[in-house]
């Protein structure tokens, strides 16, 4: 099977690259071993949240300029970064995802544990704070779903108590009560599946009576509303009399899952092939160091051939990187890795401090080409968290690096691509 | 030693990171809260069951074995296999008469085709349906697939001789559906392979692939049939092609994982005809020429087991080659029937609820017809929507210019 570009990894990075390439007329295949880490997304994305010296970043566009040359953002360059950043919200809007935020000015998101983190973009309707703990003035009503164990209103109250008086209440509905039969499986996605149609109206009127009882000025509820067809999340916000904000739950994230499915459906609708649940088993590299084709578990002896390949296989959690007893490695191509030599140096003794393994990854040149035993692979690119050069957790930069390296690489590939005449 | 060989069991339940992505994509969890969900039923429950078999939960019977959990799992855990193995190992409910009848496709098929003119109309009458509903527990909404009075193998015997004229051969595992219900699909397959220059042989002995027996707890019978099939496949010594995604998945994956039958020497030779044909074309070794008067819109539905095989690309690519055919690939949703599952009256409602998303998506596109590689998906869609469903092989056969294809491949 012949493609212009094959992408290994179907999470946010692989899909951004795939959509960019497909939109420009390329024939693109994405191989994804299972569903992606986007399912653990909080509903917000970060570009650069911490400056590495213990300070929160206000203007990521400016702070990027101070990063070391080995950082993926520095490899892309400030001017190209600025040009691409200006297009990100439109890019997602074209695929059907509405994001709010500003690359020149971070906002804050709240975590399910009640911590505040700088963020770049948030899904429409999610709680966006202009400064930690400040969402709105007055009394805040925190509404949980009865029996739902993946959202902790007390943490949220604790996080907000310096600015607001908070009331905690629970709501339910016969259709949601039914889910409590399997308490351990009463997950955000299962709840979201029943919150539509009349259930939205019923819940809205319940919340409205609670607003009256408590005199609340704003409402926070767990992000368990949303659908791939229609917008019950927007409808509920419209029906509730005071501003309603969604706060992230423990995974699975409804917003993250819908983002994944929406991007994948969009990629398919513009002609992309998405191989879900398949794993790359081997790669064929010729004497000149070019990747010719890859083979997968499912497709067996059917090769996937392409002019260019993008490795967007993610970090340890997605198995893009593996840590064995001896070493950190990249399992498909055996690419050169940047990581501390000794296992003892992978981690710091203090669990809450920065860990060197978090910045480990595939070593790349300034065009994101990885290498095998020192020799660059010219038609292979590493996008997102599989590549080295940043600590996404410590810097709060995971989504930004995933999206921007993918866009950059796709644009590079398109520079030498001439649309085939069909 | 590697990390895996030191720490991971053959059914790799330890590799579960408890992310619950499988549950988010489980079609049963979405509609039936009595089902504990694939994570709990699979890798989580496995830890308990290993400690004490009495932790086994009979609610595991609600699992459709659609394998969508395995397709979704980012850690490669064989969640569905863990659940099915637990049912085999710990399940206490013995199969009822109804389950045995539904599962024994060969026995029922043989009888029914012999008396097809009587059986078909009888199964459609209200009193018989009511009786089957109340006495057997076969849901009265269900339409039994019509049995064919002439079996595929009878047709084949009449055409066996001409198959030997070819220099290259493939073997055909026709399955119960082609044999008893839809011989026309088997005939379409033979016609296409002949046009591509291949003679078609049958296996020495073919039994039901066993999927229905496995699902209904008739494991010893399933294993005996599977052994006969694998032995015949070994003797065939050529590619063994199929036209049913479920038979294919069962023989490739369930034989080793659930029945403990080693098929490693022949596993790669068992494949869907659409994959074999696509690969020939992809390697430049064959050509299909289509008629030039086609004007149809078709929606392709990916059966769950096709999704698990990861092979939907093959029928989709073949159908896309047809000029004048507008193809829409439907979003992947389970149709809800899962073989014999949906025939049982206790599952009927859940089965239809699961399928609703699929039915809606077909209606939204409003195609001329639907294509799918699974016979039970076909029954379910045809019962629940007004659309006709065909196997991609039959669609190809309708649209191929056989004369020109034969010439192009001779």
Task: Identify the notable features of this structure and list them briefly.
heterodimer, A: 422 residues, alpha/beta, FAD/NAD(P)-binding domain, Rossmann fold, 2 domains, seven-stranded mixed beta sheet, four-stranded parallel beta sheet, 22 strands, 29% helix, B: 410 residues, Fumarate Reductase Iron-sulfur Protein, Chain B, domain 2, 22 helices, 52% helix, globular
Any chance you could write out the topology, listing elements then pairs?
The complex is a heterodimer of chains A (422) and B (410).
Chain A: E1 2-8, H1 12-23, E2 28-32, E3 44-45, H2 60-63, H3 72-76, H4 78-95, E4 99-101, E5 107-110, E6 116-119, E7 121-123, E8 139-145, H5 153-160, E9 165-171, H6 174-177, H7 188-194, H8 198-214, E10 218-222, H9 232-239, E11 244-247, H10 254-269, E12 273-276, E13 280-285, E14 291-296, E15 304-311, E16 322-323, E17 328-329, E18 337-338, E19 361-362, E20 371-372, E21 375-376, E22 380-382, H11 392-395, H12 398-415
Parallel strand pairs in A: 1-2, 1-15, 2-12, 8-9, 8-10, 10-11, 15-22
Antiparallel strand pairs in A: 3-7, 4-7, 5-6, 13-14, 14-15, 16-17, 18-19, 20-21
Helix pairs in contact in A: 1-10, 1-12, 4-12, 8-9
Chain B: H1 3-7, H2 21-24, H3 38-51, H4 68-72, H5 79-90, H6 97-103, H7 105-114, H8 116-124, H9 126-136, H10 152-163, E1 168-173, H11 175-181, H12 183-195, E2 198-202, H13 211-215, H14 219-236, E3 240-242, H15 245-258, E4 270-272, H16 273-282, E5 296-300, H17 304-309, H18 313-320, E6 325-329, H19 348-365, E7 369-371, H20 375-384, E8 389-390, H21 392-399, H22 402-408
Parallel strand pairs in B: 1-2, 1-3, 3-4, 5-6, 5-7, 7-8
